[in-house]
C-alpha cells in the first residue's frame, strides 16, 4: 500500500509494527507496518515557492440563473466575494423555494432530506435578498448535483483552514503580543458594515469592535444570520436588532441529522465550527476548483 502524507509527523511504536500519523488538529491515523510498502511526503500548497502573496478581485463569475458575482483571489485560492443566490443546481435542476417560515417548516417535515432554500425574512426587499444571498439547507450540499457554478464547489473545512493560514501569512489578521494569530482573523474576513457594534467582549479584535478595522482581506462577510429547522430567523442582517452572526455550510463532516458549518459572531475574533441541524437554512460561499 502506497501512502501519501502531508503536514504529518510519523512515529513507530509497539515494537515497530504500527505507524501512527499525527495530523494537525489532533487527528491520529494508524497503519500496520506490514501493510505499507512506500511513503511519499508532499508539501502543502501554502508552503511552496509558488505561494501568491497578493489579493485581487474580479467580476467574471456568472451562475446558471445569470447572477453575477465578484470573486477574490487570496494566496492560491479564488473565492466568491459574495454569498450564493442561485435557485438551481448547475445542471438546471430547480431547487424547492419555501415561500415563508411556515412553508420552510412544513416542507422540511414532508420532504425530509430534500434540497430546499428560502430567501430572507424581509421578502419584499429584493435589494437585501441580493445583498445577503439565499439560505440553503444541508441537503443542497449533500446532493449529487453541484449548487456552485461550473468549475466551482462548496468548500471543505480544509479549504477554510488554508484560507485562515493564508490570512496569517499575508499579515492581514489583528493581533497583540499575547494573541494567537489563528484566533484573530475573523475581523480580517468580515465586512466593515452591517455588524452589531460590540465593545464589551472579553476578547480583543472582535468583529463588532471598531468595525472600521474589518475586512483587510476584502473577503467581505456580512452578518446574514439564518433560519433554524423550526422556522425561526436568528441574528439576521435583515432585522434592525440582529446583525450578530453569519454561517456557511462546508462540504464535509456530514451525518444523518447535522452538519458542520463555519460561523462568525460579532463578539468573537475566531472562526468557529458549529454542528447544526441539516434542516437549518444558512449561506454558501463557493471556491474555485
Description:
The chain has 289 residues and is an alpha+beta fold. The N terminus is likely disordered.
Instruction: Kindly report the spatial arrangement of strands forming the biggest sheet.
Output: 2-3-4
Distance between the termini: 28 Å
The major sheet is characterized as: 3 strands, antiparallel
**What assembly state would you assign to the polypeptide chains in this entry?**
single chain
Class by SSE composition: alpha+beta
Radius of gyration over C-alpha positions, nearest whole angstrom: 20 Å
How much of the polypeptide forms β-strand, as a percent range?
25-35%
Q: Which helices and strands, and how do they pair?
A:
Blueprint (H helix, E strand, L loop, with lengths): L1 E4 L3 E5 L4 E5 L5 E5 L5 E4 L13 E8 L5 E7 L2 E4 L15 E3 L2 H10 L5 E3 L7 H7 L2 E2 L1 H5 L9 E2 L3 H13 L16 H4 L36 E2 L5 E2 L10 E10 L3 E8 L6 E6 L9 E2 L1
Parallel strand pairs: 1-5, 9-10
Antiparallel strand pairs: 2-3, 3-4, 6-7, 7-8, 10-11, 12-18, 13-14, 15-16, 16-17
Amino acid at each position: 500500500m502506497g501512502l501519501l502524507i502531508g503536514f504529518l509527523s510519523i512515529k513507530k511504536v509497539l515494537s515497530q509494527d504500527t505507524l501512527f500519523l499525527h495530523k494537525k488538529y489532533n487527528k491520529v491515523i494508524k497503519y500496520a507496518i506490514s501493510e505499507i510498502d512506500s511513503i511519499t511526503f508532499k508539501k502543502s500548497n501554502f508552503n511552496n515557492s509558488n505561494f501568491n502573496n497578493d489579493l485581487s478581485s474580479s467580476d467574471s463569475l456568472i451562475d446558471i440563473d445569470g447572477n453575477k458575482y465578484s470573486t477574490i483571489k487570496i494566496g492560491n485560492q479564488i473565492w466568491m466575494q459574495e454569498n450564493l443566490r442561485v435557485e438551481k443546481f448547475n445542471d438546471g435542476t430547480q431547487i424547492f423555494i419555501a415561500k415563508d417560515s411556515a412553508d420552510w417548516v412544513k416542507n422540511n417535515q414532508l420532504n425530509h432530506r430534500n434540497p430546499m432554500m428560502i430567501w430572507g425574512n424581509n421578502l419584499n426587499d429584493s435589494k437585501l435578498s441580493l445583498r445577503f444571498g439565499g439560505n440553503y439547507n444541508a441537503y443542497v450540499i449533500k446532493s449529487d448535483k453541484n449548487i456552485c457554478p461550473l468549475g466551482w464547489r462548496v468548500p471543505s473545512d480544509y479549504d477554510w483552514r488554508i484560507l485562515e493560514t493564508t490570512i496569517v501569512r499575508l499579515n492581514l489578521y489583528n493581533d497583540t503580543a499575547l494573541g494567537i494569530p489563528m484566533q484573530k482573523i475573523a475581523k480580517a474576513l468580515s465586512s466593515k458594515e452591517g455588524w452589531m457594534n460590540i465593545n464589551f467582549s472579553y476578547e480583543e479584535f472582535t468583529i463588532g469592535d471598531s468595525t472600521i478595522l474589518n475586512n483587510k482581506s476584502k473577503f467581505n462577510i456580512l452578518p446574514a444570520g439564518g433560519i433554524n429547522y423550526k422556522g425561526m430567523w436568528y441574528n439576521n442582517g435583515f432585522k434592525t436588532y440582529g446583525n450578530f452572526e453569519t454561517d456557511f455550510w462546508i462540504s464535509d463532516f456530514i451525518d444523518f441529522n447535522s452538519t458542520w458549518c463555519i460561523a462568525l459572531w460579532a463578539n468573537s475574533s475566531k472562526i468557529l465550527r458549529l454542528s447544526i441541524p441539516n434542516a437549518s437554512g444558512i449561506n454558501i460561499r463557493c471556491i474555485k476548483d
